[in-house]
Each structure stands twice: as C-alpha cells, then as structure tokens.
Amino acid sequence: MSPTQLRIEGTYTALVTPFRDAPNQPLDWEALDALVDAQVAAGISGLVPCGTTGESPTLSHEEHAQVIERTVQRADKRTQVIAGAGSNSTREAIGLAQHAERAGADAIMVVVPYYNKPTAAGLFRHFVEVAGSVRMPVILYNIPARTGIDLLPGTLERICAEAPNVVGVKEATGNVLRAQKLAQIFGDRLAILSGDDALTLPMIAVGAKGVISVTSNVLPAQVTRATRLALEGKLDEARRAHLALMPVHEAMFIEANPGPVKAALAAKGAMRATVRLPLVPVEDSTRAAVVAAVTAAEAPGRASR
C-alpha cells in the first residue's frame, strides 16, 4: 500500500501470539484466528502481530513469517495489519520487511535496534535502509526501556527527510512531553501513536493519533471507544472511559508483558496462558489482580461513571 493511502488513526492491537502446551509450545492457529475475528468484530483500527506483545524474540523466522501470513489472511482486508519487522540486525529487519510486503500487510513496524546500542548515525542508517527496501508505509517503534537506546527527535527528522515512507512512530518513552515535541516538529507529516495504554488520552490531547494497545487484546471495544472519544475531542466522556480502564492498563504490567494479558485471555477461555521462556506464567496473585481489573471494567455502565 502506498504510504499516502494509509490512514493511521485509532486503536491498534499489539497482538499476542497464542501457543499450545504441547512439547515445543507450537503456535495455536485456532486461537489466533478467533482472536483476529474478535478484534475485527469490536471495530479495531488495526492489528500489529509479531511485536513485543507477540513474543517476537522467541519466534523462529519460520514462525514469524507464518504469524504474519495468517494474520493478513484472516483479517482479509477487514482491518489494517501492521506487521512487526524489527531486529537488531539491519539485514534481518530488511528480510522481515520484504516478507511482510509480499504477504500483503498494510504497513510494517520497525523497533529501534536493541542490545547493540548503535549511535544516532547507526540508527539513521538502519531505518533508512529498512524503509528503502520496501514501498509500503513504515512505522518506527521507540521504546528505550527495552532497547537501551532513545530515538531522539533530531534523528527522527533526518530519517523522515530521507525516507518518505516513514509515516508514523509508536512512542513508548512514557513521556508526554516527547509526544508533544514530536507533534510540534512534524505536524501531519508523522502519525504519533501511544505505546503506553495509560498515556493514550494525554498523548492524544497533545497531538497523537491513537494507540498501539496491549489492553485491547482483552477489551477491544472499550479501548476503541476511549480512543475514539479522545480523537473526537469529547474530553469529559473520554476521561471517564480512560480512567475506567486504568486499573486494567496497570494490571497488564504487574509482571512482564505479555504474561498478564495472556492470563486475562486464558481466564476468558480465548487461549492458553502459555508464554515461552525466558518468560514464565504469571503468579497466582497477578492472575487474580488481572482478572479482577478486567471484570470490573466489563461491568455495565463502568465506562460512563
């Protein structure tokens, strides 16, 4: 898809990857299909498979490709698919990006390279090389807490000047001032998406276009509604909807993501709570807290209080 044809706005689900409990924890295709269908039915703006929440570091290259292909096929143009294509190897990220384009994804999301700590010049080269390898829209993903490196606004400006198909950034610095700065610099040139559910409302207030959400795996309709209200400028309603979801947003990170969100989905019978090592299933206390928060958020009238 041409970058100019893709509207990036609303709620995008950072899709979990369901696994079975059998030896080697194979992919659970039935659970993935059902999850995609439920997301589409709830009116989600798009799906983001094979990101952090999708446990991409523990997927083989073959599994990664299969999850992207299956998600694209199951979505069947009913919603956007932004395929995770990040790596700390530029060559590998290019391969993932080109596969996503062949598979029919609408866009790709490319995380800041992790562990090897490139300089600003290295970040610039990495993203320009990956973006230049495809013709589809590219969304960058800045999450310094996991990567050890911050994609600073000045470097992002250089990247956007060189790579016109870079059209968005998932901003997960936990800093609303950073989102405000990016909105000042880029205006409509770059779609800013919150990478933290708890900061979606304040980030939209300063110019963000939506969220790539963990919570929407479990509560897609509620998160979609809260985001839509904020984008429409209905601030009183948006604040109530956002605050009603805050206990869930907080519960999703009591332990490392995606352990809590998988526990919530398992409690609903949507999939197993299985995660791959080095992650382990959440503690019983975490599971209880997550289920209690989700149950309260689903109570009739909760979002309007």
Largest sheet: 8 strands, parallel, barrel
Number of domains: 1
Strand content: 5-15%
Under CATH at level 1, the class stands as: Alpha Beta
Mean pLDDT: 96
Uncertain runs:
none
Helix-strand makeup class: alpha/beta
Spatially, the strands of the biggest sheet line up as 1-2-3-4-5-6-7-8
Q: How many individual helices?
A: 12
Number of strands: 8
Protein architecture, described:
The structure is a single chain. With 305 residues, the protein is of the alpha/beta class. It has a single domain (3-231), classed as Alpha-Beta Barrel (TIM Barrel). The protein has twelve helices and eight strands. The protein has helices at 29-41, 61-75, 90-103, 120-132, 144-147, 153-162, 176-186, 200-205, 220-231, 235-251, 259-267, 284-297; strands at residues 10-14, 46-48, 80-84, 107-111, 138-142, 166-171, 191-194, 210-213. It has an eight-stranded parallel barrel with strand order 1-2-3-4-5-6-7-8, surrounded by six helices.
Short descriptors:
12 helices; alpha/beta; TIM Barrel; 305 residues; 45% helix; 12% strand; 8-stranded parallel beta barrel
